[in-house]
Each structure stands twice: as C-alpha cells, then as structure tokens.
Fold this protein.
Amino acid sequence: MTEAILLVGGRGTRLRPLTVHTPKPMVPAAGVPFLTHQLARARAAGVDHIVLATSYLAEVFEPHFGDGSALGLHLEYVTEEEPLGTGGAIRNAASHLRSGPEDPVLVFNGDILTGLDIRRLVTTHGTTGADVSLHLTQVTDPRAYGLVPTDATGRVLAFLEKPQTPEEIVTDQINAGAYVFRRSVIDTIPAGRPVSVERETFPDLLAAGAHLQGMVDSTYWLDLGTPAAFVRGSADLVLGRAPSPAVPGRCGDRLVLPTARVAGDAKLTGGTVVGEGAFVGEGARVYGSTVLAGAVVEPGAVITDSLIGARARIGERSVLTGAVIGDGAVVGADNELRTGVRVWCDARIPTGALRFSSDQ
C-alpha cells in the first residue's frame, strides 16, 4: 500500500474571482474539479489511501468526494484551523497515515497539473535510500523559481532563492511540487506552527546531512496558480496534451458535457469545455476557453483563452480575450474585454460599456 498527502488548503488568491466561492482544487478543469484529475492519477499509480490537508472552504471537499470509493480510493480529511504552510500541513495530516517509519509517503501540491511518472518517483526513492525525493522539472526561464541543483547521481546539493542575475542561474531545475518522504522524516517537522517545506524543512534537512534525491521528469508540468494557466491547463487536458484518466470524454478539440447545449453553427475549438447546463448560441466562437455550468454565451460572442464562471452570461457580439468572468456575472452585449480583465461574481457590465478600440 502506498499512501499520500494532498495539500489542498491554499486560498487561491491569484485565481480570484474563481475562488471566491470555490477552493482552487475544486474549480472545474476539463469538466470535473481539478482535484479529480490528481486523485485519479494517484490511484492509477497504485496509491489507495490519501489524506486531504484542507483549510480554505474545507467544507466543500467531503460532500463531493465522500470516502473516495467512487474513485477506488480511501480518502480522509484533515482541516487546519489556522494556515500551517506546506510543511505544517504535511505534519498535521500525518496522524492519519498508517505507514511504518521507513515506508514511503507521497506528497502532492494541489495546484500542479503534471504528467509525472509517480511510480518512477517512488522507485527512485527506494533504490537511492533517500530521506526525501523530489520531482524536479526543467524550465526555459528559471528566474521566477527557486533552483535545485543536483550532482551527477541526482542528489540535491542546495536550495537556491530566485536568481537575481544571470550568474546566479546555475541550473534550470526547479522544485515541481511532488515529493516522497520517508515516513519518519515527516515526524521531524515541527507541529502546531506554520512551516514552509520549501524554505525551511528541505534546507534544514540538507544542512543536517539528510539524503535528498532529485528526479528530473520533464513531462508535462504546469502550475495552475493564475487564471491564464488554469484555462490553459483545462484546454491541454481536453486536447490530450496533459494526461488524465478523469477527463469525462474523448480527448479532442472540444468537450461538451451531456446537458450542455451548443447551436449548430457555433464553433468550439482549442480544447474548449462547455459545462453542464451551459448554452452557446448561434454563431458564437469559443477558442481554448472554459464555460462553466449554467453559463450562457449569447449569439455572435467571441471568446478566446477565457474562463466563464458558473451561471454567468456573455452578451451578443461581445469579444473576450484572456478574461475571467466570475460566477453569476453578466457582460452585456457589444463589450470588449482583453487580457487581464476580471469581472467579479454577480457583477453587471452594461451593453457597450467597455471597449479597447474605436470601432463602432
């Protein structure tokens, strides 16, 4: 048996307004809550017991997933009364583990979409005798990340802060947010206070002489922390670029859930998702976007790389590019919303109120 802890307590501040009423792991991606993809991939890799470390809107998770039996899992839920950080959350959830002191325990961040070979990470952990093993990925521009250099055998040498100069970029390897801990190592994390596993636990272990092993797996990897990344991740799941056994349909250019309605001449491409009960009207064009449950896209609207919240309405001929529309919001006809615009939940934008061009 392999156990796992899934860190799902973050507030998802950068994703607002999507996370005003919904915790980030429960925002739908490719037709199901994003967390479903993580759970399904863990189960496919042989994990059968997962402890969900919850905090923000913790009451949402258990009513949806229950005991996990529908996914072939045994799920348990642990709620932090006060945010404990990544390390504190791992320590707080550990009381629900059944593993022995030397057994491996998987830990996943709840906002990473990845094609990581989970079995390979566990195997690497066992064969190297590591105290902690980390999934590392290589990025083209590492300036936005902390760096994790390793030696020729993959052993971690240091944890470096975000590089400020070109000379400080000593590797393109970064922490990709999935770990295997020796069970006894988790018990060394201080209990009852906030702890960052990235900034405190890992550097302290390294300084104490512990064996931290890095495994580079350069398959699909995306941090879904921003609206643009979340929309892209959902589209990549639909297109089959990001692997998941939980996509509710065949991979392709679009995913239309069973109770959604799409006009015959509407065009959906680029991994677009149309959620349950949603409607896309005549002549509308939707590319690489997510239209959540009950939303309405009126005739002639053009939507690109955007997320339309549940029960929101986009008026006729409105053009959205890289926009995020909160649940229940209404964008009137003939508006133009460009990249970075966020319309809050239940807000109302009158007809023709927003334009970024002089076109009539």
Observations:
- The longest helix spans residues 227-239.
- The domain at 2-223 is CATH 3.90.550.10 (Spore Coat Polysaccharide Biosynthesis Protein SpsA; Chain A).
- The two ends are 64 Å apart (CA to CA).
